[in-house]
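Page header: ASSEMBLY MODEL / four components / 1464 residues total.
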Amino acid sequence: MSLNTFGHLFRVTTWGESHGPALGATIDGCPPGVSLDAAMLQHWLDRRKPGQNRFTTQRREPDEVEILSGIYEGHTTGTPIQLMIRNTDQRSKDYGDIAQKFRPGHADITYWQKYGIRDPRGGGRSSARETAARVAAGGVAREVIRALLPGMQIKGYMVQMGPRQIERARFDWDQIDANPFWTPDATAAAEWAVYLDGLRKSGSSVGAVIEVVAKGAPAGLGAPVYGKLDTDIAAAMMSINAVKGVEIGEGMAAACLTGEANADEIRMGPDGPEFSSNHAGGILGGISTGQDIVCRFAVKPTSSILTPRKTITIAGEATEIVTKGRHDPCVGIRAVPVGEAMMACVILDHILLDRAQTGGIRGRIG
Amino acid sequence: MSLNTFGHLFRVTTWGESHGPALGATIDGCPPGVSLDAAMLQHWLDRRKPGQNRFTTQRREPDEVEILSGIYEGHTTGTPIQLMIRNTDQRSKDYGDIAQKFRPGHADITYWQKYGIRDPRGGGRSSARETAARVAAGGVAREVIRALLPGMQIKGYMVQMGPRQIERARFDWDQIDANPFWTPDATAAAEWAVYLDGLRKSGSSVGAVIEVVAKGAPAGLGAPVYGKLDTDIAAAMMSINAVKGVEIGEGMAAACLTGEANADEIRMGPDGPEFSSNHAGGILGGISTGQDIVCRFAVKPTSSILTPRKTITIAGEATEIVTKGRHDPCVGIRAVPVGEAMMACVILDHILLDRAQTGGIRGRIG
Amino acid sequence: MSLNTFGHLFRVTTWGESHGPALGATIDGCPPGVSLDAAMLQHWLDRRKPGQNRFTTQRREPDEVEILSGIYEGHTTGTPIQLMIRNTDQRSKDYGDIAQKFRPGHADITYWQKYGIRDPRGGGRSSARETAARVAAGGVAREVIRALLPGMQIKGYMVQMGPRQIERARFDWDQIDANPFWTPDATAAAEWAVYLDGLRKSGSSVGAVIEVVAKGAPAGLGAPVYGKLDTDIAAAMMSINAVKGVEIGEGMAAACLTGEANADEIRMGPDGPEFSSNHAGGILGGISTGQDIVCRFAVKPTSSILTPRKTITIAGEATEIVTKGRHDPCVGIRAVPVGEAMMACVILDHILLDRAQTGGIRGRIG
Amino acid sequence: MSLNTFGHLFRVTTWGESHGPALGATIDGCPPGVSLDAAMLQHWLDRRKPGQNRFTTQRREPDEVEILSGIYEGHTTGTPIQLMIRNTDQRSKDYGDIAQKFRPGHADITYWQKYGIRDPRGGGRSSARETAARVAAGGVAREVIRALLPGMQIKGYMVQMGPRQIERARFDWDQIDANPFWTPDATAAAEWAVYLDGLRKSGSSVGAVIEVVAKGAPAGLGAPVYGKLDTDIAAAMMSINAVKGVEIGEGMAAACLTGEANADEIRMGPDGPEFSSNHAGGILGGISTGQDIVCRFAVKPTSSILTPRKTITIAGEATEIVTKGRHDPCVGIRAVPVGEAMMACVILDHILLDRAQTGGIRGRIG
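Prediction written out in full:
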């Protein structure tokens, strides 16, 4: 509801600017008694951390998370959890020029027009650094999910860089953590490395598509109309910086299908209903089916590029701008752990919503 | 926050089942003093009404809206507006068979699994009839927008049916209201009519892509992180029945672009900043730029088809199902006014949010 | 959150004006599978209904509630429940004079100043008729509580009329439903009847204090800081028309006590902790203790009296006003079922919130 | 809405435990462009700070607030403001005994029963230290109000300690800041000092009543039903630790009045409507009248006293407890700045809500 908060019951409010003293997440509504310490969260933050290879920004941030509240003797107490990450490598000199000019494709101009003031240092609040807070919060959500539904797994990976898609036949879960692009297709990873090196050296950038899957979610999460599981997933992903499209299951391609091709037939399996296919992406009528929950989102290319671009100054004068400094040729790479974190937060939120309304009692089949 | 409510300040709660006595929308937070009567809302409902041509369901519903509260002497009073639409053509005999079987691709199975009870008559709450309430609420939002920002226009239209896209070069605003598909491309309309007749006669169905544009929205609507304008548009559109993907501006195709191609250059125009292109879909950093706000969403084909499909009963036994009765070969057609309504609600909500936080004061440029 | 909504998860939005076609409540978040029909709600509405004896307004309203949605075969489905009550006895001629004058002590002037428009017929939205919708919604909450926690009881009664308090030593539960004032003290009831007859005949009015008790609520409902059980009870009661004060347990008198006198000592009983007293009103740190939850609220006298009062017109001219028509000499009487309804809604809301966050798992003692 | 958040649009989430590393407030929805620095907030925190005289706890906390986000060059940017206060004097050895025993009148037992875990160090989340975060947030609200409505003043003061009330005839605004009890009655202050010294030396404690007034608030803040200004004030005050009753205007005493005595007559003054009295406490029908907004709340005596009290252990065994350590003989004293802070937050929230819905346009009178 609030401008910087997401979630109904597991509520995450992120705060902080790129070059302020710190940023973080205030988490309210976390179930009590869950084992949690900073190291568990650091694991996920380290995956998002910049400067890990030549394909991400060279800003050096340790991104060390401190837990300031809500934990006692290694367990959540049910009170608000405050997660703080200090900014250390702020080099604000890099950003001096952009205080007076609006970078095309950036939030500079809209922040100015809305608020009449903006923090230009590193993009301020619109910096992708904000997503570190999401990843930390997602780490908390993962631990709660692990306690409530030990079999669940949430995994994100890149399925497209620029116009180059992975080959689904080469999909290998074990590859995802084995290349700098979090992609399940090793051949694609090799090709993308060459492609992205070219873009990086020319000071250009490119977009990407990320897929996030939740495996082992029970049937029954979600609600019929506005509190739909897919509504909240779409909102969560679209709220990530630079995301321009979100798909569930077949996504935009569902438009091309006939009713015969699209409907997933149902049969009885040993543990309950099974489906012959998953065009629905694990969600029917806003409620999970028990299949894999599958979403994808497109990340636009960063607009911080070395080619001069036409723009205007605050005074309204025509000018050009080149964004120097440290940037990501494909910000989609670092969006992978962010998408996972958002999925974890949404799923946990709906687990809590569901047990609130239904008490976890389910309509039996068979 | 609530399961069946959308909006932060202009809050719409829809209620009602397909075959209950009535359905409607409870609107809270509407500004006072806006001219409003039932005829203004009926105009939009009539566009969504079933049975208007051979391409939509033959269910006959007058969809007459009554205003039960919130209006005095033809103006909104600022108190809740209750909009009620009586169901008249309920023919529940059509749906007898499906009480015991789950239709593939429908919400039948997930409702059952979540709630342990469901109203099978016409799909109950999961019926597309719920969208009539959205269209009525959108009609209220339109009148308030007209009072606050007279220059704004919100228009939806179909840009793809099945695999067949419109030709952007043939785009003609005046065509949109001149064909049964609300498409701006007259040639496409003619081709689609033949195509859809074929699908209709064979008892099949197909998906579609709808585009909705808001023209004349001021710069400054939205917020940086979760209360982003694009987040709320994505949520609003994904909350419509059968929608599987949402795009802003370039959408999923943004992944294919380079930074040079994607960033919309800025220049000074007579009335303020102008942009050389609109890849961003009118939104940067979650906040409107003053350009056209452009979104698209994909509607899957209805799963109510005449071809038998494999499924199970509540008892878990294998069976087949054919959905007889009255159905839409392309539900995307009737999603056009629904998408417009959702856009109107989101835009108005953000106008109110913006004047709450900023008082409408803007950072000047030039 | 919304202007006309209360509740976090069991969310009730009331709508409607005194002399519009209807009023009602939209309930979202109700658990599924609970037995419910209109007669169950009518039982509670009949207790609040005007014109039942000479001490309440002679407006004749059957207050018949219709359930328009959310029920299938006599059970809640988990979808929104729409409750509608038609207005029948509207006699708007009674209210002609007050369209141009502001009644002292009424919302007339503030509605006008805020909205620039108001429905003067019977007070419009500010009429106590709005509370019929609350009572209907409270009836739903009661049925859900009965299903979840069969031992709970919620009971309201009058403990003070004007300056006359009941004698606690004469408290008799069985008396509450046996007199027109819902008071547990039969002697007080007899005295109040004489007292109120005098006020009624002279066209005056008087205030009252209502106490509402919830028995059998489990320990653990509520939350530490803003989502406190007592916070929500205070808000719920203060939101009732004409209420000016709310107390939990000792209430305002807690100020007079020493720490020794105030703290309820704890001992172990056969079913868990017991307390030697209940100064806390069943709530410590915002969370229920398992004792009776006790609140009181003061209802001011209605300002609709036969004595002329000085006021102004919309044009700002000095004038006098006498409110003719049908009114209540002690509106506190009809506030008793309303207070019960609000307590039921708050308790149920917190049952749902609690099982969302904690899953109903409790810290064991002993 | 959330468990630890208050406010609709100016949303404050407090976090932190008494003996954790820090506590604070996350503020979302603050208007941009308001002058703000830490010193402005420190002013208010210093009023609440413990250990300032012999009548408040001797815990030594500098309560220095750091602003971690949301400010650029001395002005709010419209993004979340994070306020952090480090805990320094934690002496957790004082609290060793109470980890296994429940203190009567404290939240110990209910936290345990709800969550199955609690931080016993200094009361953890239930400590009155949490109110430091509220005071800091209230300081932000005050600065925004100053920018929007320069004439407004919010002032709290003690009107009763134990059974001893102030004499209204001796009310002197200038006295409030001149004595350790924030009371406007110098004679009462002198008497209370003697009285409280006696209680302090005997290890006892006593309750108090605080009154908070907002002067200069415009007519039109609030809403008719649940979003009433008085509803939100009641909730805000009841959410403060140890508060057991809340009153608006006449409060509980309104029950004793007749309609003639209670209704504030209206006349036209030079700047608009005026009232002959203010029994309503500046609020009619949930909406401000333009008069002083007046509320009172009762604070119970702290239960941390030197007299042994009967209680049980977590194991359910009977025992006694004496709360040693540093405590307040009258916690009501430090509740004065907290009440002011809550009033400031509520008023600002309603200013924002009002300009959202009405745009600040008012119904003219005269």
